[in-house]
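Priority: medium. Attachment 1 of 2:
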């Protein structure tokens, strides 16, 4: 069973949006408002690599915490068929031969979701409707009105990796969150469609043990 289930009952009240001060924010304020410690989400994944379709709208559960640890479990007919763990850049999977195939895209998904982790030394530029946070290796554009990411660029030796965020929705924990994340690199394209998400949640102690 996935960790979210559908229930019926009374309608929830209107989502409580994160309160964004109606003034120009400092970098420290932006990072504080935007960050959270843990995330788990039910997603659909589509992935192409070297012109070959690797994932076609598969269901997966994604877990991540701010210490650089993440787990991705892919399901078929409700049963887990693939499990991959990233701990501080080291990746292992079950089946083991899959780790190399998905290592780069998995690490980029972590950077797309926890974009602020490498922004403490960033330079802040205030644009007309966006904030731009930029380091020599990364740039992130955020909407000023709600601090949601719009796009991200990662500068690597192989070229610019582009990440786009779209379709923000109020999800289970009543925060706005982009429900579509698209990652484009030289070799592959990964599209993540978020179905359920919760932040600042508790994990079991063995969540990030090797599969």
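Attachment 2 of 2:
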């Amino acid at each position: 069973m996935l960790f979210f289930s559908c229930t019926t009952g009374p309608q929830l009240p209107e989502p409580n949006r994160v309160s964004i001060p109606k003034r120009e924010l400092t970098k420290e304020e932006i990072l504080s408002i935007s960050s959270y410690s843990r995330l788990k989400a039910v997603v659909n994944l589509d992935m192409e690599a070297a012109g070959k379709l690797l994932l076609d709208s598969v269901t997966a559960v994604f877990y991540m915490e701010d210490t650089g640890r993440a787990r991705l479990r892919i399901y078929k007919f409700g049963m887990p068929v693939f499990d991959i763990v990233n701990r501080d850049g080291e990746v292992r999977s079950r089946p083991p031969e899959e780790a190399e195939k998905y290592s780069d895209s998995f690490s980029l998904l972590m950077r797309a979701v926890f974009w602020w982790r490498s922004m403490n030394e960033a330079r802040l530029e205030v644009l007309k409707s966006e904030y731009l946070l930029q380091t020599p290796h990364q740039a992130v554009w955020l909407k000023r009105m709600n601090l949601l990411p719009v796009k991200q660029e990662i500068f690597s030796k192989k070229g610019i990796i582009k990440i786009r965020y779209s379709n923000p929705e109020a999800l289970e924990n009543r925060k706005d969150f982009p429900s579509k994340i698209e990652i484009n690199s030289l070799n592959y394209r990964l599209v993540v469609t978020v179905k359920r998400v919760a932040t600042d949640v508790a994990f079991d102690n063995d969540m990030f043990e090797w599969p």
